[in-house]
Specification:
The complex is a heterodimer of chains A (323) and B (318). With 323 residues, chain A is mainly alpha-helical. Chain A is built from twelve helices and no strands. With 318 residues, chain B is mainly α. Helices cover 63% and strands 0% of the residues of chain B. Chain B is built from eleven helices and no strands. In chain B, α8 packs across α9. Chain B is globular and about 75 Å long. The N terminus of chain B is likely disordered. Classes of the chains: A mainly alpha (323), B mainly alpha (318). Chain A: Belongs to the binding-protein-dependent transport system permease family. Chain A: Keywords: Cell membrane, Membrane, Transmembrane, Transmembrane helix, Transport. Chain A: Its main location: membrane.
């Protein structure tokens, strides 16, 4: 176990190093970047421009800059944002809770919708409801998530009015401007983004849940459980369902990168102040300390989640051992 | 029967001439014929194929179906709602949306096809090599695959497309679509590689491959003449789903403003400024997105049908 974790840790460090080199190289090769703002500014002399370049460390060759960046990172310094001049890690720290809140709630609703419907669909295979559900699931998987978000805004924040006037549901931000924080206000602001994310991803999970359940139902141990006279609902919950859920756990772990990707769309469309929007703004301004920090943290989260999936796997499925 | 014949190369085996045909004897059918029959029985797949064909015709022959230009601005016709003269209305610059949707489809579908082809080419090659040679090459290639899987894809795509745009290469000017298509493909081959690797590993153990090794066939011949044709079914299904995914990815990137640049229309970038216009001109946001949705759902239904039709076990039963 300890040996396994150590090996996975070393692999993760190696993977992150490679990813950081590639991304750092790419970002540094982008001409202009932060200096664009000064290039055409008549108030800035050639000398000032050169001094600014030196100050941002842009005169060194890329490998030197990479090593410096890595050295600072080892001491916990992610560099300062070129735009806000604040440490990049603080910018992320401010936004990360908002993203995790949105993602967490969305994931909860995704699974709460997908798992029961997937099971129902599998148990009633080839029924009318199964046909409707699988067709809807395929449609959901084909829906461009950002367009679905735009439609939600058109319907619920533009067309439909609340009884007291004003839009039925707010279509942007985390709270009503000028109002003190209250939970109900936050929930109202979360309804549309969470609906957008969870309905679209529930479609995919529902199909997997159905397939996984169908596979398990025909296994010998389920027949044995029936054969020894267990009531059908016990056969399904205790023998079939528990095994059918195993692949879903892997999928949730492996899908995290896509969930983060979804954060970019949700946060841009609904002006949600999270990491996705921070990244979007940083990309527009080539603010590379922030870009690097977000990319590295997300890559690390993806790797950590894949290790976690392996660990959970061994905990719930005694047939699998870590090797 | 150890070797499954590939859908393309197979033809119906000649029925024996000597024996009189009995009533019980079924007419022999090739894998391709059986797969076609199976596919045509999948109702939603056939509907999907029909819809996709209609879209393809409208997109390819776009100039025949409209009297407007996709890029000329007619400022006095801004924000016209859908009407007899402008079926899908007009946008913020007075351009006819019906026209732009079909011209935009040219780019969106081209990007989808090119990125899918890129992903399939890389994935198939890596999967074949990894699965056939095993050992060190397999270990290295699978680590590379894992690294690519750990990349937050959309984020890196945004960085990469910014990079391509700012470089301002003569062969990758703003508005050209294929650099974006290649970049999407380069970040999407991993599932194909794993799929092909798995299939190759099991095929390598089979007698017909062993026999080819015995008679001294070169590795290249074994890989491309004996193994590849037997992996085609899996690749075709993966390609269909990959095409759908690539269209969605391009539209998302272009929506965010990091994909194909205006004024070249694509289904994604047509949506990018619509959020400010939603109160006054919701049709500008509805039609381009609807095209993405309809196209992708049609392709996904076709993929479902192909998966059933190309499953060799199902064919043996049928």
């Amino acid at each position: 176990m300890a040996e396994y974790l150590l090996r996975r840790f070393l692999q993760a460090v190696f993977t992150l190093l490679i990813i950081s080199m590639i991304i750092f190289g790419l970002i540094s090769a982008v001409p202009g970047g932060i200096m664009n703002a000064y290039e055409d500014n008549p108030d800035i002399t050639k000398e000032d421009y050169a001094r600014l370049r030196a100050k941002y460390g842009l005169d060194d060759p890329v490998p030197v800059r990479y090593v410096k960046w890595l050295g600072n990172l080892a001491q916990g310094d992610w560099g300062n944002s070129f735009v806000s001049k604040r440490p990049a890690i603080e910018e992320i720290g401010d936004r990360l809770p908002n993203t995790l809140l949105l993602m967490g709630v969305s994931l909860f609703f995704t699974l709460a919708i997908a798992i029961p419907l997937g099971i129902y669909s599998a148990l009633k295979q080839y029924s009318v409801i199964d046909l409707v559900l699988t067709t809807l699931a395929l449609a959901g998987q084909s829906l461009p998530v950002f367009w679905f978000g735009l439609l939600l805004i058109i319907v619920f924040s533009v067309s439909l009015q609340a009884p007291g006037g004003g839009p039925l549901l707010p279509g942007s931000g985390m709270r009503t401007p000028g109002e003190a924080f209250n939970l109900w206000d936050l929930i109202r602001h979360m309804i549309l983004p969470v609906t957008m994310l969870s309905l679209v991803s529930a479609a995919g999970y529902m199909r997997y849940m159905r397939a996984s359940m169908l596979e398990v139902i025909h296994k010998d141990y389920v027949r044995t459980a029936r054969g020894k006279g267990l009531p059908e609902n016990l056969v399904m919950t205790r023998h079939a369902l528990r095994n059918a859920l195993i692949p879903i756990i892997t999928l949730v772990g492996l899908d995290l990168p896509y969930l983060f990707g979804g954060a970019i769309f949700t946060e841009t469309i609904f002006a949600w102040p999270g990491i996705g929007r921070l990244f979007f703004d940083a990309a527009l301004k080539t603010d590379y300390p922030v870009l690097m920090a977000v990319l590295m943290i997300f890559s690390a989260l993806i790797i950590v989640s894949s290790v976690l999936v392996d660990l959970i796997y061994t905990a719930i499925d005694p047939r699998i051992t870590l090797s | 029967m150890t070797e499954k014949s590939s859908p393309q190369s197979s033809s119906a085996p000649a029925s024996s001439k000597n024996s009189a045909p009995s009533k019980l004897e079924q007419k022999p059918r090739s894998f391709g014929q059986l797969a076609l029959r199976q596919f045509l029985q999948h109702r939603m797949a056939v509907v999907g194929l029909a819809i996709l064909l209609v879209i393809l015709i409208l997109v390819i022959f776009a100039p025949l179906f409209t009297q407007y230009s996709p890029t000329d601005m007619v400022l006095r016709d801004r924000f016209q709602p859908p009407s007899a003269s402008h079926w899908f209305g007009t946008d913020d610059l007075g351009r006819d949306m019906w026209t732009r949707v079909w011209y935009g489809g040219r780019i969106s579908l081209s990007v989808g096809l090119l990125s899918m082809a890129t992903a399939i080419a890389i994935g198939t090659l890596i999967g074949l090599i990894s699965g056939f040679f095993g050992g060190w090459s397999d270990a290295i290639l699978m680590r590379i695959t894992e690294i690519f899987l750990s990349i937050p894809r959309l984020f890196v795509l945004i960085v990469l497309t910014t990079f391509l745009r700012k470089l301002d290469l003569p062969w990758a000017r703003a508005g050209s679509f294929w650099p974006i298509a290649l970049v999407i493909g380069v970040l999407a081959w991993m599932t194909v590689a794993r799929l092909v690797r798995g299939d190759t590993m099991s095929l390598r153990q089979q007698e017909f491959v062993q026999a080819a090794v015995m008679i001294g066939a070169s590795n290249r011949r074994i890989l491309f003449r004996h193994i590849l044709p037997n992996v085609t079914s899996s690749i075709i299904v993966a390609a269909t789903l990959g095409l759908a995914g690539a269209i969605i990815t391009e539209s998302g990137l272009s929506y965010l403003g990091f994909g194909v640049q205006l004024p070249t229309p694509t289904w994604g970038n047509m949506l990018s400024n619509t959020q400010n216009q939603m109160t006054t001109a919701p049709w500008t946001a509805i039609f381009p997105g609807m095209m993405i949705f309809i196209t992708v759902i049609a392709i996904n239904f076709i993929g479902d049908g192909l998966r059933d039709a190309l499953d060799p076990y199902r064919v043996e039963r049928g």
